[in-house]
Specification:
Number of helices: 7
Number of strands: 16
Radius of gyration: 18 Å
CATH architecture: Alpha-Beta Complex
Structural class: alpha/beta
Strand content: 15-25%
Order of helices and strands: EEEHEHEEEEHHEEHEEEEHEEH
Length: 264
């Protein structure tokens, strides 16, 4: 599932007429980068939730993602992508309820379209080095975890981080338990990259009390569900150190467009 329902207030006036996930990064809509990365990993279906100017997103992509060349902003040369077409389905929160349902509410709304285990990622994060692999999914399914998160070193705009990490339970891949640390705990915290694997059960009782499919359009944040599951040692995590940008301001967008393009 790709999250694309936010208003993008900090990106105004750019987002007054264009949804944030459609802003151009190195010759492509921002949300196209993670969708293509999923396709390169062999994943053939994606659910996109929308709210603010959501009709623009469906008009841009339709029901199938096909390879398109990226543009190197310095050389002005195109870089061709190669992957199989990906089917796209939509959960139109804005159309159905008039506004975005927040992360957990949006996932709960889309749950009937998702499998028992699924990726969740944000349409406004640029992480061109991240590889979506079936091996990661298989490892997650074989565990008893409700979620597996990729954390990143804290950026300037989130210096205190979000979650801690235990000692690795899998030293080879660096997999550990994600920790909901008390405010006064001196252990280091890291920032949630917005990339994770989730089990459908996290959005069902006893963890989540939203009705199946969220027919009432209940708004709900994701963090409380994750923190509750961390309290029962049911969330794993690992550190991701590749390039990662939360494209939250016009300045960050401009910086990305001043860098050489990459398709991998």
């Amino acid at each position: 599932m790709l999250l694309a329902a936010g208003r993008g207030e900090r990106m105004r006036p750019l987002t007054d007429t264009c949804p944030k996930p459609l802003l151009q990064v190195q010759g492509k809509p921002l949300m196209q980068w993670p969708m293509e990365a999923l396709a390169r990993g062999g994943f053939s279906d994606v659910v996109v939730n929308t709210a603010w100017l959501g009709e623009h997103i469906e008009q841009a992509f339709g029901s199938v993602l096909v390879p398109q060349p990226a543009l190197d902003m310095r050389s002005k040369l195109s870089i061709q992508e190669h992957f199989s077409p990906m089917q796209i389905r939509y959960s139109h929160e804005g159309r159905d309820f008039g506004a975005a349902l927040e992360t957990a509410g949006g996932i709960a709304r889309a749950l009937p379209m998702l499998g028992d285990a699924f990726w969740v990622l944000a349409g406004d994060v640029f992480a061109p080095d991240f590889a979506f692999t079936q091996a990661a999914v298989d490892r997650f399914i074989a565990s008893d975890m409700l979620a597996h998160l990729w954390l990143v070193p804290n950026p300037e705009h989130n210096p205190k981080g979000d979650f801690g990490l235990s000692a690795p339970t899998d030293p080879i891949d660096g997999v550990a338990l994600a920790l909901n640390l008390p405010q006064d705990d001196p252990q280091p915290r890291f920032t949630y990259s917005t990339i994770g694997l989730y089990r459908k059960a996290l959005f069902e009782p006893p963890w989540c009390d939203i009705a199946p499919g969220n027919p009432q359009g209940t708004k709900a944040a994701l963090a409380p569900l994750l923190r509750a599951a961390m309290g029962q040692a049911r969330v794993s995590a690992q550190l991701y150190t590749g390039r990662w940008t939360d494209v939250g301001t016009p300045q960050r967008l401009a910086q990305l467009n001043d860098q050489p393009a990459t398709a991998s």
